[in-house]
Amino acid sequence: MFDKTRSGQIDIFGFSALWDFIQRWRALFQQYDRDRSGVISGSELHQALAQMGYNLSPQFSEALVRHYSCRGARPGIQLDRFIQVCTQLQSMTQVFRERDNAMTGNIRMSYEDFLSSAVGRLM
């Protein structure tokens, strides 16, 4: 994201942008870590995603927490995984919106088209 030349390296400006990016996500994480446990629970994640404009079920939020929780650690999503979840949701939402021309919340696409879009956004 911050390697504008795609050289595998970032310059001081890229590093500064990365630092600011992480600090903004950390502040958001701390805002929703209401019990100050150092992890975001399913209900806390659901509240965060809802305030970000995602209309997702509590069950989906819980499934994200189960998937992204570190094994052997206390249940919940730590900061690095919170950033990963949110940035991936943003990318996938952008792919969806590009194809939802009528803004109905539904699209039709082939599996290969979906994979191509997903890989292009996540890699």
TrEMBL record:
SMART domains referenced in this protein's UniProt entry, alphabetically: EFh
GO molecular function, a single term: calcium ion binding
Gene3D superfamilies: EF-hand (1.10.238.10)
The keyword NAD belongs to this UniProt entry's keyword annotation: no
Any one GO cellular component localisation term in the record: ER to Golgi transport vesicle membrane
Pfam families recorded: EF-hand_6
EF-hand domain sequence ranges: 20-55
Keywords tagged on the record: Calcium, Cytoplasm, Cytoplasmic vesicle, Endoplasmic reticulum, Membrane, Metal-binding, Repeat
GO terms for biological process, alphabetical: COPII vesicle coating
Main location as per UniProt: membrane
Species in which this protein is naturally found: Salarias fasciatus (Jewelled blenny)
Name of this chain's protein: Peflin
Membrane topology: Peripheral membrane protein
Superkingdom of origin: Eukaryota
Lineage: Eukaryota, Metazoa, Chordata, Craniata, Vertebrata
Subcellular location: Cytoplasmic vesicle, COPII-coated vesicle membrane; Endoplasmic reticulum
